[in-house]
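Appendix B. Raw example, untouched.
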Amino acid sequence: MLKMKNPVSNRFILLTKVTLVSIMVIVVAGGVVRMSGSGMGCPDWPKCFEQYIPPTDVSELPENYKEVYSAKRDKKINRFADFLAFFGLNEVGAQIRNDQSLRIEQDFNAVNTWTEYINRLTGAVAGILVFLTFILSLRHIRKRPWLGVLCLVQIVLFGFQAWMGAMTVATSLTPWVLTSHMLIAILNVALQLKIIRVAKGDQARVIVLGDFQFKGIVYAAILITAVQIFTGTGLRQLIDGMDHLARTSWIEELGSNIYFHRSFSIAVVLATAALMVLNIQRNIRLKEVNWLVGIIIAEVLAGVGMAYFNVPAFLQPIHLVLSIVSISILFHMLQQLKVRKAS
């Protein structure tokens, strides 16, 4: 067990953990929003129908609300297209700018509106906690100079995620924008885990390894899991375009697109099995490996359920959340491992 000097307050460490939970809750809430089709429940951002407390009935909206919000979305779409063009993505920007279907406003649905509204509230709470963590990290700037830097980066990254959330609404849930929004959330989780590790200092558990093999497999598992998540979001993008088809035909319509994701899950299982075997053989005693094994088993079962039972809506957020939890556990494990240098 290794120790670091200059621990920060336990209260601050607790705050960093609560912030991590709040960021994870955003992922869960986002999964529920996608499952329920509530992503466009609020046509504007950050308010909902220009109100801090959204309406519960269409009678509370003006008769021409669709035209009003369609015009506002048009302006946001053009600004987003200009942003993409600035970074050289002219073709992508032009595609969004010229897609008139993005301007079509949906009918008001109170359930969808409040589902999306609650999702935004969780984001607001997480944002406040992220900002508070940064402010309080400044008290420890002399003991942990990197702590303040990481917390500042988290504010910037979280702000970018919030902006991507606004663009997700502006572009009517354009699949690649939605996927980018989710991937940034994963980076938020990974960064917050690093913040917790730096904040804990000598309270953090550190496992000293005799060689790089176990840690190398953790790196490989992170890469494999990231690829699996990315391909999974790609499948979700395709499914999002099948809302006009019967749910029973979705898997068939995916065709060869699903084969890589399904086959690559074997690599995830093998990497997890390798970590389990080494954890036992070398008496490393990382309880997180046991958690990971349980999560991967549940993840595989959820995937099988989606494949053979016509992608049931309730399994979609479960499958997503389990994948985020699994890569979070891997990031957490990585923070605890240190390879002994050869003498």
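End of appendix B.
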